[in-house]
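ok so heres the complex, two chains, lmk if somethin looks off
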Amino acid sequence: MGFGGKRGGGSRRKKVCRFCGNADIVLNYKEPLILNQFLTERGKIVPSRISGTCARHQRALATEIKRARNVALLPFTSNLQG
Amino acid sequence: MAKTWRKYENLILLDPELGAEPTAELIERFRSIVRDNGGKMVKSDCWGIRNTAFEIKHKTKCYYVMLEYAGEGSVSIEFARQLNLLDVVVKFQSIKLAENLDPEEFANIEEEIKEEVVPVAAPAPAEGNAEAATEKVAAEKKTEEAATEEVAAKEKTEEAATEEVAAEEKTEEAATEEVAAEEKTEEAATEEVAAEEKTEEAAEEEAEEK
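and the predicted structre for the whole thing:
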């Protein structure tokens, strides 16, 4: 009944922003393989609530993904039918 | 006082069927455009022919060239104008890297030229050369991939915890294909995201009752 305790079984780990946690990852449109990890199969940008990316890096990530799309390094959408 | 400079980065997609020499000439022409307009080349990097993520002007491959240069704002405008006039330029993107730079900073900088990859899809190159070129490209790609894989591997070991969570989510996504679809199925009864939590609570309650 939600007695103010933990929800969801309490086994959920806190998501960590991968760019804050590891300074080695370059967030740049010229690294499509890294950016690709933050796209769904259909080529949509994965929301930060799913990936755990912090707001600041999510903004930068979105910009870089859009830049990469402009020069065809990343897809705007997949070729899936339907 | 002289105007401050800006630093730009241009990624240019050239026609892959142009051939080695015309491509090299074209890149030299780009350099002269920058020089003639009072700019200074900082870096040039030929990525070679790559598959594009989607078809552009009926082309699935493009010859990628990265040019980094500094100069007044007018240099980039003129450069973009010239690029638009060329038919062999499939697409290009200019990005401003920095502004309010002192022109004297660039006085002694020499252009850094990275190894240029010979275009593979030249119209009628000698067979040996073409094969060597393709091998080169393949080898470079492999090293690139290996590097990225290493990075990925490091991340995985360091952030195994978060990866697991991501993996769980991915399996969920795979089942439903789309994040939106996933939410919809999960929240069939209600519509808002908050509702998801509520259903979880309900599940908990059931467990407690049992």
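quick notes: The radius of gyration of chain A is 16 Å. thats all i got rn
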